[in-house]
Amino acid sequence: MGAKVAVLHTVQSTLKPISEIFGKVAPDAQVVNLLDDSLLRDTAAAGRVTPQVIQRICCYYACAQQLGAQAVLNACSSVREASELAASTVAIPVVNIDTAMARHAVSLGRRISLIATAPTTIEPSTRIIHRCAADQGKEVIVEPRLCADASHLSAQGDYEGYMRALLEEIRDSLNSADVVVLAQVSMATALERVPVEHRPRVLASPMLGVEELMKTLEASSGG
Fold it and tell me: What residues form DSSP beta bridges with 39?
């Protein structure tokens, strides 16, 4: 039996794709899913991460540690900064799913298009890209693009319409950007429909995030 890891979700739609990636990257891992959609809902309502959201995430990370998890993966970019604060309250490593993606985006080019369907994701995702750029001694230009049409169609249950709107945004971004970043886990399925020749320039977080978690876990265990 492999390592036990906890994953914090703020929307139900991230459960399946992340579980599938664990099946590919770390099939022996014991994955404990913690889901609280009020975290994202409250963050959206306030327009920012609130002290109450931070407190709840601290509780979830403490719970993960008590459950015997050896590491935690935060699957929500909107609450990544709350996750960073909560990480200091536990003795196990915490990985935010979009950090590796941001680091890789900076390595690929200077002009980065950041596509999101949730307004709450834009600012924290922009900040982590700039932070990764500073760590690499680089300067980048981040162009945030809120794909409101895709969000609206998704809320209506129109998956194909959602995909069309998202792919149109990706195609448009590729005309001006060196690399396109899909800010949310739920957007990763769009990669399958991006033309093969453009896929190296379009990044999604799930695979990179899970790989980062397993590397962090290995390093922390002395492997």
Answer: none
**Fold designation for 4-97+207-220:** Rossmann fold (3.40.50)
Task: Give the 3-state secondary structure of residue 49.
Answer: coil
Give the C-alpha separation, 150 to 113, whole Å: 16
- Is the distance from CB of 164 to CB of 190 less than 8 angstroms? no
Query: What is the pTM (predicted TM-score) of this model?
Result: 0.93
Q: How far is CA 174 from the centre of its chain?
A: 21
CA terminus-to-terminus distance, the chain: 16
On whether the CB atoms of residues 74 and 43 are closer than 8 A, the answer is no
> What CATH architecture does domain 99-205 belong to?
3-Layer(aba) Sandwich (3.40)
| Separation CA 49–CA 80 (nearest Å) | 9
Contact yes or no for 215/70 (Cβ under 8 A): no
Could you give the CA distance from residue 42 to residue 39 in angstroms, rounded to a whole number?
5
**CA–CA distances in Å: residue 68 to residues 30, 72, 128, 159:** 10, 11, 29, 37
Alpha carbon 41 to its chain's center: 17
Residue pLDDT tens, the chain, 223 long: 689 999 999 999 899 999 999 999 999 999 999 999 999 999 999 999 999 999 999 999 999 999 999 999 999 999 999 999 999 999 999 999 999 999 999 999 999 999 999 999 999 999 999 999 999 999 999 999 999 888 888 888 888 999 999 999 999 999 999 999 999 999 999 999 999 999 999 999 999 999 999 999 988 776 5
